[in-house]
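Exercise 7. Given the components listed, write out the predicted structure of the assembled complex. Treat all entries as one system.
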Amino acid sequence: MLAQAHTFTIEGLQTRHVTVELDVRPGLPGFAIVGLADAAVREARERVRAAILNSGYEFPARRITANLAPGDVPKAGPGLDLALACAVLAASGQLPREQLESHVLFGELALDGRVRACQGTLAVAQATRDAGLKRLVLAGARVREAKLVEGIDVAAVERLSSAVRVLRGGAGDPPPPPAAHETSADGARALGAAGAPPDLNDMRGQHHAVRGMVIAAAGGHNCMLSGPPGTGKTMLAHRIGSILPPLSRPEAIEVTRIHSITGGLASELATSRPFRAPHHSITAAGLVGGARSRWIGEVVLAHNGVLFLDELSEFARPTLEALRQPLEDGRVAIVRAQHSAVYPARFMLVAATNPCPCGFLGAAERCRCTETDLARHRRRLSGPLLDRVDLLLHLEIDEAHDLAAAPLTSSRNARERVVRARERQAARLQDDGVTVNAHMSIRALKRHAALEGKGEEMLRSALETGMLSARGQHRVLRVARTIADLNGKARVGARDVGAALALRPEGSPAPSRAA
Amino acid sequence: MDHACGQCRRRSRLLAELGVSLDYRCGDRARLFELLALSDEDLVGALGGRRGEELRRRYSQVHAKPVDASRDGPAVCRHDPRYPSALSGAWAPPMLNVGGAVDRLAELTAGPVVAVVGSRRATDYGIEMAKSLARGLAAAAVTVTGGLTDGIAVSAHAGALEAGGSSVAVLPGGLDAGCPARRRSLCERVMHRGCAISELPRDCAPRRWGQAASERIIAGLATLTVVVEADEDPAELAAARLAQALSRMVAAVPGRVTSPASRGAHALLMAGAHLVRGPADVLELLFDEASLGAAPALVPARATLEPRLRRILERVGEGGDTPDKLAGSAPNAAGTLLALSELELMGVLARGDGGRYVLRDAIAPRESAGGAC
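Answer.
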């Protein structure tokens, strides 16, 4: 007897439709699975067998062959268990076969017959809708995530027996109440950090850097924080999440989908932007993806959010070089022998570094690095990566402000300004297919950041004196546009250009350090 | 064209040959300079050791074969009229290999020469001061000299080149091998416009004693030695001490009294060195005041600035040199940043280490030049 069930397997961030064809016929008892199954799928044999028996059904003592079609797609993970078990039951006459045609079964089985949740629920729910199948059967813990997708019917099942009941036309189990740790006040869960992000009013002094950070957040600009140890680089970077605007619904779905597949998120729609801060020992594959066991890299996990690289000069050179494509294109193309894929990776880069190996260059003459040390440090930082940084913010050892000093702004006020600036940008840029100034094309830049009078003159003389390259000029224009947006001005003025020039990452035309 | 005699060329090769032995003695500079003042015969006797006999055979005047000068580039020895007259005395090297041209060296060392020396680990203040001094001196057609070591020395050469002047670089090794790779391009630019000199054969790698010996050439060449930034370290003050020993003029640029980088300069000032605030002070020391009028091509750019820009410039000069100090809690932060950018575009400010702004002396176009600075 033959039965068919539908499910999905996850390949990178994509889902692939899998038809489980299961044949039960007389012969030596056995259970074979064919169709490019990985170890987790092959182990499903034991789980399916135990779960069926422990749920009170009969496991046919015959020759069972399961084929996972299409045969050229590698199947991974334990999510196929439920479909296999139901196909066994249908092929052995314990379940009506026709019902299986319209259902997607997605879940891992425990030996006692319970159904466990699997990673990638949102992606599977979207694929179910796209494939035109009407009902998704999955573990109760992930029902809320699946229900984010409109247009499909989602049935929660706690056990294999509940799945059988659903397939016979009955109702699903009620979904479990959300666990306390999964929700915060606004019903959402912060990604990468538990609880609400820390507030900008924790910062004392460093007003220049805080202002710069608000500009970076408003325009989605990549920025670099430089300063001696202990001045608050990391502290400031960790507060960027609190001033970024909330995710829009399409962005939130995108983020949730990615983090649901990689297992970083439990069953809710993400509302805060991802903040990824990998340690500097990370490899290139870890950062952009493509490792066999870690196909999705940090840049993809930081999509629509922030990638924070602390101690930038400690990262391996090849690792940083690998960031060039995602920073330029907002996506990453990974090509390996078995597999190739293109993933979204549109993030805001925040990097922090000491100004020199000892950390005290330019600070009260305490630096004792030699010229060679400095040259080496600079070589590590400079080059193509620094070329994609729009803002360089210097933090300094600050004797003037003690810990009791008043902060410049609170995250709430800053965020309001950022949100307003972003609304202005989005309205202006809607025909250009981008939402923030940092991603403006050069053509859009010419149209939206036209200069006149003194501003134009300043930019031209910066180009003539060698203070800026052509690319640097565009960067300054983008930042100037953002500063104008923050101040609610329609045109970019000389003051905006001046401030953007003072924040540019390039050094002076005749750099202080000679030759 | 050969301006060096065979005897002096042989001396140069002999020094290269004895490099290791000389390195052993360079801890005590006085002893090193005594050794360098010895005749060839005595030098081999003092340092030759077991190789003495062989060296004597190869280098002594009696047995030597004629020196093949084609292997070496241009050189000038003390028997030639083009040899810098400041380098006379037993301590001075008998011969200099010249990168550039011998005639140019003679020309450059005919007038007053100023050595700009100081720490290798200079702060951006010291670097800007060294550059601005060299720029001013180059504009006044005064030759600048110094080593090609990091920090102050290199900045002085760079400053002189920026102003279109020429400088004389003294290398611790041979002209081909004595310059570290990262200084190669600067060295070539110096040679293009001025000269690089060395008392060792071209292919001789830089040695420890060569460093000490090059400082005696620097101090000897210079009419005035200016210490821009130096710690109280004998090595950093060596050139100034040598200049004092040769009874040449010594001057120093003061820094902040709290800064360890300027401790040595302050010690010199305490001991009676001339105080130098800028190129004008140096020129005043070199020439009498009457000749000052025509010389410098620097312009007092600050007097013509708008008041708001001048205010910012003054605050930077007072030590409020970072955007945070200047604009930290001010309501008009953007205005301050704008002023900083404008000043930077004018070339009056430069952004240095750690985002600090440093004052620079802008070189004005020649036609608008006039008056002292």
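Discussion: The longest strand of chain B covers residues 95-99. Chain B is about 45% helix and 10% strand.
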